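lol ok so funny story. i was supposed to be doing the assay writeup but got distracted and ended up predicting the structure for this chain instead. priorities right. anyway since i did it might as well share w the group, maybe its usefull for someone
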Amino acid sequence: MQFTFTNLIAVLAATAAATAMPATGTKANNAAPSPLGPAVGAPSPASEVIPLDFNVGAVWTNANKGGTAGFINVGGIPSGCRNFVSPFIDSISSLSVDKGFRCVFFIDANCNGASITVRDGAFVANLDGTNFQDSLSSFECFAN
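and the output, tada:
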């Protein structure tokens, strides 16, 4: 059997599926909860994205990294639109995006409505006083 790029993508996809986070309501080795729902829309073609599983930032339900924390975990870059789930939907007060990435956060589901872009290692300590405090519902992340 010849091992091709297509085979590599299939193996990586199967590995990602086999090592996915457990279903909501279960715990796995004290891992922080993921604030993500399923990807929205069609995935990017395999020639553009190699399926991976990694964090590009974090969100918190209170200012200054307080309250409940969750990682911004993506399956590839670009991430495609992702919706936040409870307890993060419309509850985020502070957030950060890792160096080398930029994420656009939207006030409506499915990456609609007003947005704020956070990029390249930035930390937003407090969204209070903005239209985005406890209003973020979805996001999409890219390489910076």
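The chain has one domain: 31-143. The radius of gyration is 16 Å.
back to the writeup now i swear
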